[in-house]
Amino acid sequence: MTTQPALSLADFSTLFALAGRSARIRAERVLNDFGLHAGQQFFLRCLWEMDGSTIGDLARYVRVEAPTATQAVKRLEVAGMVRRTPDDQDARRSRVWLTSAGRRTWPQVSAALAKLEQELLAPFSPEEREQLMSLLLRLYETSLATDRSGGG
After folding, report:
1. Displacement of CA 74 from its chain's centroid (Å)
2. Phi, then psi, of 36 in degrees rounded to 5
3. Strand order in 94-98's β-sheet?
4. pLDDT tens digits for range 47-85
5. How far is CA 27 from the centre of its chain?
6. Would you tell me how many other CB atoms lie within 10 Å of the CB of residue 60?
7. Residues 73, 81: Cα–Cα separation, whole Å
8. Burial class (CB in 10 A: 0-12, 13-18, 19+), 148
9. Are 58 and 77 in contact (CB under 8 A)?
10. Is the Cβ–Cβ distance between 96 and 61 less than 8 Å?
11. CA 14-20-26 angle, 5° bins
């Protein structure tokens, strides 16, 4: 009796998961060098571009639920990267701002992640990179449409 391998490298979902996991692990190592956790880079980038955003705004920009954004902001506060202040218009909301440490750290994080991206995409030609990004975006948009419609 022969057994089937647990993973098939001819299976899309397996390859997609393995590639994503490998890239995520490498990104986590880069982020750890800056005292950050996976996912926090998305919030830092948003604040770099739109400092003073509300947590609701950050959740929408990063495409996560508000409680996830709240947790990320709390962790970034503990790390000294951001601070919160009450919103001038609505005291129930707060605005999130990069601290000086966050402003110093983001360009370094961004450069380190760009270097990682170059390493990961090195085997691909510029045309293949463009095609890969286009296909991933299409896949993402397709999955969003399916998620919103409740289909499966």
Report:
1. 16
2. -110, 160
3. 53-54, 94-98, 82-86
4. 999 999 999 999 999 999 999 999 999 999 999 999 999
5. 10
6. 14
7. 9
8. exposed
9. no
10. no
11. 135
| pLDDT of 124 above 60 | yes
Kindly state the tokens that stand for 75: 């962790």
Measured in degrees and rounded to the nearest 5, phi and psi for residue 141 equal -65, -40
pTM of the prediction? 0.83
Query: Which tokens in the block code for residue 11?
Result: 């299976």
Q: How far is CA 83 from the centre of its chain?
A: 20
Terminal alpha carbon distance of the chain: 35
Which SS3 state, helix, strand or coil, does residue 98 take? Answer: strand
- Any long-range contacts for 115-118 (C-beta under 8 Å, 24+ apart)? 116/26, 116/27, 116/30
Running DSSP on this structure, what letter comes out for residue 33?
A: T
- 103, amino acid identity: R
Residue whose tokens read 């983001």:
106
